[in-house]
């Protein structure tokens, strides 16, 4: 029971079906017929072509072998009143042809694989099918346990089977998520759901997100390449505006990281752990161009694609890089496949610069002075109760396409709208955020800005003023429930637009903002549903979109 029972549940009924059908087929070919009508419990029907499709190797490592790549030859069938054992050779076809060339005839195979069948109740009554059957219909006892022990020499199918296990796991996850996304909320595991996602309003499809998150926790494995030396690889900034870049890399580098695997055959995705911020810091020379960054990235990919088979296998589609620095996209141009195929996780998510939301993911930009959130932005009662006399606040440099328009119309025009180019020294930036209802978040040099997360922390509703910016976690979060998006062309009407938001709606936005805060926070160690995990989840979702054969 024990071992078998576990496999039985692990592989589900299909494996039992295929295994059993394969067995019946083998038996029938040996023109020995066994059948017992009295033990019939379930009935199955499959085309014969399916019979040899899949052999489940429930050996020690629970691997699946695709039998289209395997030659199976029956050596013998032994039976007693209560059990049947079928011995057969099972080898990869490539090996068979190699061996055939060396040894002729083929029966000189030095090895054999064994299919054991135990607990299979049989009686030597008539077998109801002749050998030319097109379909098999038979009934069997639910107590059948199959154990296929494949030969250790089968290196190739072992690897192949490990990969198919990965794909099979993903396909189960997809099914489960689809099921959850279409099920009504009453089907949810309400207790756990309410603890984990207490405010469903802010999510696009809370049930699907919840299921997907749980599937990620259960299955997701990342292989981190070991190539490269710190500080350019395996390290990154953990402070200041690009902190999330280093924090993510360091988290994945931890030896016992929950989502890390050291077995590349079990990985769903492969991480290229270099830091664009550190590339800029160590390789960029003001007098030169950014070419050294690209050279590094291109060399790195050459290195890993020569040392390992994984990059070439998918053209990088199951690989990801992560960068918060503005030059992440530029660095990714070093290699066409990195740019066009890989998952690029970046703060600078400008969709008119090749950011492709179906395969790339937006990283939130989180500014951490000395590695910490500013005390004024920490969650507290005083922050919640903070009076908000100002309507909309902005202070920052005039650069990029949007800010000049904003400043032109609002710079120190209206006491209710404190808009500054640079904040006078005696004023505190975060005090303004805490005392404003809305925080204006225009793009700067690049689309992303740490302002967005700071506004979330300050419970100041972000007013997003940008073009082509793909917002962080936009595939799971409903940004319109906790932020306001204003078209750049509407900037002259900004005050009017903000004034038209009712108190009721404002309170609701603010309440939701408080709920989503945790998705934008970095913790050490990371907590469930925080920015680290939401980023991983974005990668997981993109990997789910990808079907590798
Ligand atoms: C198998 O059947 C024979 C004859 O019916 C019987 O003598 C023998 O004990 C049975 N063996 C087992 C293992 O049940
Ligand atoms: C909900 O989850 C808990 C913990 O995994 C489990 O014990 C419980 O049976 C589940 N309830 C439903 C209705 O699935
Ligand atoms: C991957 O492809 C590149 C370029 O075609 C080649 O140089 C490299 O050897 C390949 N890697 C492996 C592991 O075969
Ligand atoms: C890949 O990206 C490059 C730019 O880096 C572009 O020139 C090229 O056309 C893209 N290739 C494909 C197949 O999209
Ligand atoms: C986004 O990319 C486009 C195209 O390169 C560029 O014109 C625009 O300025 C970028 N946006 C920002 C905010 O940098």
Automatic annotation (TrEMBL):
Any one Gene Ontology cellular component term annotated for this protein: Golgi membrane
Keyword Transmembrane helix included in the entry's annotation: yes
Location in the cell: Golgi apparatus membrane
Keyword terms: Glycosyltransferase, Golgi apparatus, Membrane, Signal-anchor, Transferase, Transmembrane, Transmembrane helix
GO molecular function: glycosyltransferase activity
Transmembrane segments: 12-35
Domain of life: Eukaryota
Topology in membrane: Single-pass type II membrane protein
Principal location listed in the UniProt entry: Golgi
Domain Exostosin GT47: 216-501
Family matches, as InterPro entries: Exostosin, Exostosin_GT47
Family: Belongs to the glycosyltransferase 47 family.
Annotated protein name in UniProt: Exostosin GT47 domain-containing protein
Organism listed in the record: Thlaspi arvense (Field penny-cress)
């Amino acid at each position: 029971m024990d071992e078998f029972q576990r496999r039985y549940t692990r592989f589900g009924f299909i494996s039992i079906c295929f295994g059993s059908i394969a067995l019946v087929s083998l038996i029938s070919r040996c023109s020995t017929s066994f059948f017992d009508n009295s033990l019939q419990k379930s009935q199955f029907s499959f085309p014969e072509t399916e019979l040899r499709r899949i052999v489940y190797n429930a050996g020690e490592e629970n691997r699946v072998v695709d039998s289209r790549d395997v030659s199976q030859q029956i050596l013998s069938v032994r039976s007693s009143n209560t059990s049947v054992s079928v011995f057969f050779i099972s080898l990869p076809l490539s090996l068979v042809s190699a061996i055939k060339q060396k040894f002729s005839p083929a029966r000189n195979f030095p090895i054999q694989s064994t299919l054991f069948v135990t607990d299979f109740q049989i009686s030597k009554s008539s077998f109801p099918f002749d050998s030319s059957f097109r379909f098999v219909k038979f009934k069997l006892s639910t107590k059948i346990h199959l154990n296929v022990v494949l030969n250790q020499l089968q290196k190739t199918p072992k690897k192949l089977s490990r990969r198919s296990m990965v794909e099979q796991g993903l396909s189960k996850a997809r099914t489960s998520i689809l099921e959850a996304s279409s099920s009504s909320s009453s089907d949810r595991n309400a207790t756990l759901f309410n603890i984990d996602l207490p405010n469903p309003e802010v999510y696009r499809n809370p049930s699907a997100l919840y299921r997907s998150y749980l599937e990620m926790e259960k299955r997701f494995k990342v292989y981190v390449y070991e190539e490269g030396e710190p500080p350019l690889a395996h390290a990154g900034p953990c402070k200041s505006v690009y902190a999330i870049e280093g924090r993510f890399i360091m988290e994945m580098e931890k030896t016992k990281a929950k989502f890390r695997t050291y077995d590349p055959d079990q990985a769903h995705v492969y991480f290229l752990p270099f830091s664009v911020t550190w590339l800029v810091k160590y390789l960029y020379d003001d007098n030169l161009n950014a070419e050294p960054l690209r050279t590094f990235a291109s060399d790195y990919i050459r290195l890993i694609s020569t040392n390992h088979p994984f990059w070439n296998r998918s053209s990088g589609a199951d690989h990801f890089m992560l960068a918060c620095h503005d030059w992440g996209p530029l660095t990714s141009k070093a290699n066409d496949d990195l740019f066009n195929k890989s998952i690029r996780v970046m703060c600078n998510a400008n969709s008119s610069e090749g950011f492709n939301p179906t395969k790339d993911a937006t990283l939130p930009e989180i500014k951490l002075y000395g590695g910490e959130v500013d005390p004024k932005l920490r969650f507290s009662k005083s922050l919640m109760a903070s009076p908000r006399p100002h309507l909309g606040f902005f202070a920052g440099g005039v650069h990029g396409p949007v800010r000049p328009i904003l400043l032109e119309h609002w710079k120190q025009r209206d006491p209710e709208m404190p808009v500054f180019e640079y904040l006078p020294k005696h004023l505190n930036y975060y005090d303004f955020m805490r005392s404003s209802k809305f925080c204006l978040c225009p793009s700067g040099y690049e689309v992303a800005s740490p302002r967005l997360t700071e506004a979330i922390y300050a419970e100041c509703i972000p007013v997003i003023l940008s073009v082509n910016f793909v917002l962080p976690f936009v595939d799971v979060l409903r940004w319109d429930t906790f932020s306001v998006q204003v078209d750049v062309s509407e900037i002259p009407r900004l005050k009017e637009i903000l004034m038209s938001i009712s108190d009721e709606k404002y309170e609701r936005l603010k309440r939701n903002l408080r709920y989503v805060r945790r998705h934008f926070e970095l913790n050490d160690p990371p907590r469930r549903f925080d920015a680290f995990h939401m980023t991983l989840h974005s990668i997981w979702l993109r990997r789910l979109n990808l079907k590798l054969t």
